[in-house]
Amino acid sequence: MKMMSEMWTTMGSTLASFMFLWTIMRQYCPYGVQRFLEKYTHRIMNYFSPYIRISFHEYMGDRLKRSEAYAAVEAYLSANTSKSAKRLKAELGKDSSNLVLTMDEYERVTDEHKGVKVWWVSNKVMSPTRSSMSYYPEQERRFYKLTFHNKYRDLITESYLEHVMREGKEIRLRNRQRKLYTNSPGYKWPSYKQTMWSHIVFEHPATFETMALEPEKKKEIIEDLITFSKSKDFYARIGKAWKRGYLLHGPPGTGKSTMIAAMANLLAYDVYDLELTAVKDNTELRKLLIETTSKSIIVIEDIDCSLDLTGQRKNKADKLSDEETDKDVVGRKEGKEEGGSGSKVTLSGLLNFIDGIWSACGGERLIVFTTNYVEKLDPALIRRGRMDKHIQLSYCTFDGFKVLANNYLKLQTHPLFDTIKRLIEEANITPADVAENLMPKSPMDDPHKCLSTLIQALEKAAKAEELEQNCPIQHEQLLQQNGSIKENGELPPDKAVNQCQL
Ligand SMILES: Nc1ncnc2c1ncn2[C@@H]1O[C@H](COP(=O)(O)OP(=O)(O)OP(=O)(O)O)[C@@H](O)[C@H]1O
Ligand SMILES: [Mg+2]
C-alpha cells in the first residue's frame, strides 16, 4: 500500500516537472501546434495527476478591466517570493523612489501555507487576433498558475487563497503610486489597453495640517472623510452605494482645490479631474465613470461654468459672459458654435453620473464639485444624497493665518500677531492672498518683514472695503478704470487694495 502511494507521489511530481518544462518550451512553438499538443497532453496528465491547478489571468472576458485577483497575486508573490525567485522583473514603485521586484515570465517559485507546499508559475501566451479585420494587435495573455496536491484542496482554495488575496490587496494599497487622471479631449474611443483617462503621478503636498481653516471645521471634515472610508459594511447594510458627494464653495483663492488634494492625501485616494466641457455626450460621461477605480475622488471644478441650469452645455470661456453686453455674448457664442465641439452633456446626464446605477460600480468614491457661486447651481444637483456635505470656504480668519504663519515662516507667535488679529477680522482677505504676502520675496526677508507686508495689505483691504461701503460710486469708477472686475462684479480685495490708494 505504502509502495503504491509512493509510486503515485513520484508520478505526480514527475508530471508536475514535465508541466513546468512544457510551460517553458511552448513559447517557441507556433500557436496552432501549441493548442493541439496542449489539448491532448492536458487530458492525459489530468487523468493521472494528483495535482490541481488554478490560473489567474490578467484580463478576463472582454479585457475591459485588469483582473483584481491577478493584481493581488502579483503583489503577494512580489512581496513573499521575490527572495526565492531567480529571475525577477524590476519596476519603479511608490513615489518613484524604490524598485519593486516581481517574478519574471516563466519563473517558478514555491510557497508554504500551514506546512503545505504550493507552486506558482508566472506565464504568458500569445493569442492570435480575433479576426483578420481585427483592430487589436496580437495579444499577450499573462497569467499565474497555482499548483497544489489534491488532498489539500479545501485548505488551499479556502484558507490559502483568501490569505493571498487579502495580503496582496494590502500590499498593493501600500505600494501603489497614486495617480491624477484627466480626460484629455484628444483621446479617441478607447482602443486596446488605452483608456479614456490619461494620468500622471499625483504628488500634491497639501494636507489638512497645512490648510488654513478653523480647527473645528477641519476636525469635522477629517472625521467625516475617515468615517466614510471605514464604512464599507455600513453602506452595504443600508443598501446604499459606497460613495459620498462634497460640494466645496467659496470665493476664488479660499482653498477649494487645495482641500481636494488634502482629501486625496488623507485617504490615499487617486484623483480623477473631470473636465466636463471636454466630454462629448452623456454616453461618454458614463464610460468615463465606469473606468474610474475605487478609492478615488472624482472632481468637477467650477461646476457652474460647465453646465447651465437648464442642462445645456456652457463653455468655461463663458465664465464672464454674465457680465458682458448682450452683443458680446451673442457674438462670442455664435463664433463658438461654428467651430463647436458638439458636446451634449445634460443636467440629467450629470445627475445619472452621480446617482445612476453605474455610479455604484467600483465603490469607495468621493464626488467633489467646486464652485464660486453656489447660488447659481440647480438645487437638484446639490441636494443631500447627491452632494451630501456642503463645505463653505471663506476669507482668512486669525486661526487660518496662524496655520499659514507656521507653514510659511515657522512662527507660532510674534509681537505683530495682535495687530494682525485685529485687522484680519475687519478685512476680507483670502488665504491665497495671506499666503502670498507671507512668502519671502528675497533671501533678506525675515519673518518681521513678511508680517509687516501682510499688515500693509490688510490695512489696504480694510480701506477698500470702507470705500465700497461709504462711497460706492467712487469705488465703481475705480473698478471700471482698472477693468479688473471680479466675475461676480465685486473687486477682489487685493485689486481693491492696489486701486484705492487712499
Ligand atoms: N485654506 C487654505 N489653506 C492653505 N493655503 C491656501 C488656502 N486657500 C488658498 N491657499 C493657497 O492659495 C493657493 C490657491 O488656492 P486654491 O487654488 O486652493 O483656491 P481655490 O479656492 O481653488 O480658487 P478658485 O476658486 O480660483 O479655483 C493655493 O495654492 C494655496 O497655496
Ligand atoms: Mg480651484
From TrEMBL:
Organism whose genome encodes this protein: Vigna radiata var. radiata
Region: Disordered, residue numbers: 316-342
Biased composition (Basic and acidic residues): 316-339
Cited Gene3D superfamilies: 6.10.280.40, P-loop containing nucleotide triphosphate hydrolases
SMART domains the UniProt entry points to: AAA
Record GO terms (molecular function): ATP binding; ATP hydrolysis activity
Keyword Repeat: no
Family from the record: Belongs to the AAA ATPase family. BCS1 subfamily.
Reaction catalysis annotation: ATP + H2O = ADP + phosphate + H(+)
A Pfam family that the UniProt record links to this protein: AAA_lid_At3g28540
Cofactor: Mg(2+)
BP terms from Gene Ontology: response to stress
PROSITE patterns (UniProt xref): AAA
Name this protein carries in UniProt: AAA-ATPase ASD, mitochondrial
